[in-house]
Structures are given as structure tokens and as C-alpha cells.
Amino acid sequence: MKIEIYADILCPWCYIGKRRLAAALARIVDRDRIQVVWRSHELAPQEGKLPGLTAAEAMAGWWGEQASTSSCRRHRGRRQGDTAGGRRTCSPAAHGAG
């Protein structure tokens, strides 16, 4: 079986997916029958080449200043595997942004 993955190297959600795939593949007995092909995909090609906002600054823009420091605290202590509907429970979409 061949798995092709399109990911942005700077995307934290892509990194989480990469880690989850690696964990899943580690549990497969016939791992050598699976070929993983990584493809580059730039999620925001319109963004400049210079560093932009920090994560806290971006969250403040999405949800307001208060949310950037407290909205996701309830999620911080959860294990990485906890999901809601197959997706991370704390994301811009989960909070109505994006």
C-alpha cells in the first residue's frame, strides 16, 4: 500500500498527524509492505518570507486577547490522543475561527 502525504513543514497540525501516523505504522506487523511518500505543500503561499505573528498573537487575533491565554488551557493537560470527531479538540475551527 502506498500512502502519499501532503504537508507543510511549518504546520503544527501536520506535525501532529506525522507523529500519529508513525505511531500507527509502528503497530503494523507488515510495515515493510507500506510505502510512505511525503509531498511538500505550502498552506499559506501568500504569506511573506519573514517571520510573522507568534502563536499567542495569532490566537489573540482570532479569539480576542483573553482567549489567547486562557481558552485552550482546559485542553493543555489532555493526552495527545484525545480527539473530538477525529480532530484535535483545540483548534481555531473548534473555537469558531477560521
Note the main attributes of this structure.
single chain, 98 residues, alpha+beta, 2 domains, two-stranded parallel sheet, two-stranded antiparallel sheet, 4 helices
Overview of this structure, please?
With 98 residues, the chain is α+β, with helices and mostly antiparallel strands. Helix content is 35%, strand content 16%. Strands 1-2 form a two-stranded parallel sheet. Strands 3-4 form a two-stranded antiparallel sheet. The longest helix has 15 residues. It starts with a strand and ends in a 10-residue tail after the last strand.
Structure summarized in a few sentences:
This protein is of the alpha+beta class. Helices cover 35% and strands 16% of the residues. It folds into 2 domains: 1-41; 53-98, no CATH class.
